[in-house]
Specification:
- With 466 residues, the protein is an alpha+beta fold.
- The protein has 2 domains: 213 residues, HIT-like (HIT family, subunit A, 2-Layer Sandwich), CATH 3.30.428; 127 residues, no CATH class.
- It is 30% helix and 17% strand.
- The protein is globular.
- Strand 10 and strand 11 form a beta hairpin.
- Helix 4 crosses helix 5 and helix 9 crosses helix 11.
- The longest helix has 21 residues.
Amino acid sequence: MPALPADGVPPALLGAPSFLQRMADGTLKQINPFTGTEVGPVAGRARRPLRVDPAPADPLTHQDRTAACAFCADRYLQTPPEKARLVTGPQGERMIRHLRADHLFDSVAQFRRIPNLFEIVSFDYWRLNYGHQLPPAQREAMLDYLSTEAGRRHVDALARRRAGLDAAAEVSETERLDHAADFFGGGHDVIVARRHYRDDAVDTSGLASSGTLTPDEHDSYLRFTIDAQRDLYAANRYVRYVAVFQNWLRPAGASFDHLHTQLVAIDERGAQAELEIQRARANPNVYNEFAVDYAAYHNLTVAENEHAVAFAGFGHRYPTLEIFSRSERPQPWLHSRAELRGMSDLIHALHAAAGPAVPCNEEWHHKPPDADVPMPWRVLIKWRISTIAGFEGGTKIYLNTVDPPTLRDSVTTELFRLRAAGSIADTIRIGPECACVPNSLRYNPAVRRTARPDAAFPSLYGPPAV
């Protein structure tokens, strides 16, 4: 292999595709191996500030901590009927499903699963296009919720709000049942965290993001989200893909600056999944060769643990961190607890490294249940620190303001600091500590039992001579 230059981008390897090309002026041209997206950052633009200027901060009141937005703990009735909540106590964490309206405030939810009031794909979409009906368990939960006066008032208030009606407008029984069916049988859910602001925050700048959770809290958040994802597949046989994503802060598309993740069930795989399935059919080892291994050969690996690996992505419109699961199993709900914890720890650490002031999107990509090729679960964290402008729209060549080596350096430096402070999992290996063993993603059966000789496999003849 050619020697690595100082910037970590080697010449093209013999027979390997070239997704990264360093130009004489310092520009690093990039091509995404899965989408074909072309990125050409201008060297000087990479020195622009990363963080968006924060709004002026005001001192926090008690009401700010519990009622700053509709997702906060004092405003449970401003969101649709819960599908589930996760609570903690002396006996550990416990999930409660389908609480009645008159019991919503009996406990404090660490995380809630609620329907989106303004869903992307409604229950009517599934009913009218596919003949889908509420499964018996969902219908029973809906009727139980509507059996109390508090439940009926709650659904009526939301129905009026969604329809733009006056608060005093009458809601018929038929209208109530139609709206309730949307809430209990719809396929667009939101996972909402308890905190709007960190517990130690003193002013409104102290927003609680994924990275401000503890590693244990983030693990609960991730597993609770995966339970919802699995449930959306199980409840509707016409669903072909459940998209999972997080919009953090308004520049990234969030309606509220309150930590939440969305899940949307759709009746197609989506263009991204279809494109990746074609790539995986052509080369079953593509996620090792063109993603994790390619990044390692270019010194872009950011962190790893036994069950996951992360690197500074290339060929993205925004600075992007990619986290891949090393599990043999293709979908999150099939992972073991240890494998899920490994993914959670890396996702949490990378959010912590960015900090709560950086707007970002978290995107999950997994093998669609009806796909015929192995594909690993991976998560992308995209920093929304620039706005796509006319040049990008006209040429489809994007000016990512932070190139992958710069992103790697920024993130690994912060990860070392966070690990030393005990803010992220201490099992994470960072940057130069990573082994970067080829074919470490075990989704591909052909490479699961292959390994490169290294320190884990001692020589038959003892240690090398000094």
